[in-house]
Amino acid sequence: MLNIGMSIPRLDARKKVSGLEKYAADFYGLDFVWAGVKRAGIPHARIRGIEIESAKKIPGVINVLTCRDVKGSNRQGVVRKDEPVLADDRVRHCGDAVALVIAEDKMALSRALEQIIPDYDPIPGVFDPEEALKTEAPLVHEDNPEKNLLMKGFLSTGCAENAFNECDAVVEACFEVPFQEHAYLETEAGWALLNKDDRLEIVVSTQTPFRDRAEVSEAIGIEEEKIRIIAPYCGGAFGGKDGVTVQSLLALAALCCPERPVKMWWGREESFISSAKRHMARLYYRLGAKSDGKFHALEARIYYDTGPYDHLGGVVMALGLEHAGGAYRIPNTDLKAWSVYTNNPVGGPFRGFGVVQVTAAMEQMVDMLAVELAIDPVELRLRNALGKGDKNPIGVTMSGSTGIEECLATLKGNPLWEDREKWKSKAGSFKRRGAGMTSVMQGMGYGPVVPDVANAKIELTEGGKFRVFCGVVDMGQGNATTYAQIACEVLGQDIRDMELVLPDTSKTLPSGSASASRTTYTFGNALIGAAEILKERILKCANRVFMNGEGSDIALIPGGVRNIPSGQEISLSEIAGLLGNSERLAVSRFQAPVSTETPAEDPILRVYGVPHVIFSFGAHAAFIEVDELTGRIEVVKYITVTDCGRIINPQLFEQQMQGGVAQGIGYALMEDFVTERGFVNTPDLATYIIPTAMDMPDMDSITVDAYEPTGPFGLKGAGEVACNGPLPAIANALADACGIRVLRSPLTPERVLAEMNKEK
Amino acid sequence: MRKVFIPETQAELFDIIACNPKSRMFAGGTDLLVKLRSGQFDSDDLVSLERIDELKGVEDYGDEVFIGACTTHSALIADPVIQMHFPVLVKALRVLGSPQIRNMGTIGGNIVTASPAGDTLPPLYLLEADLELKTKDSSRLVGIKDFIKGPGRNDLAPGEILARVRLRKCPAYNLQHYEKVGQRNSLAISIVSLAAVLNVSDKGIITEVRFSWGSAGPTVITCKEAEAVLAGRPVSNESLEKAARLARKAVKPIADVRASAEYRRQVSGNLILRIQGLLNGSGDSIQFAD
Question: Is the pTM of this model over 0.90?
Answer without folding.
Answer: yes
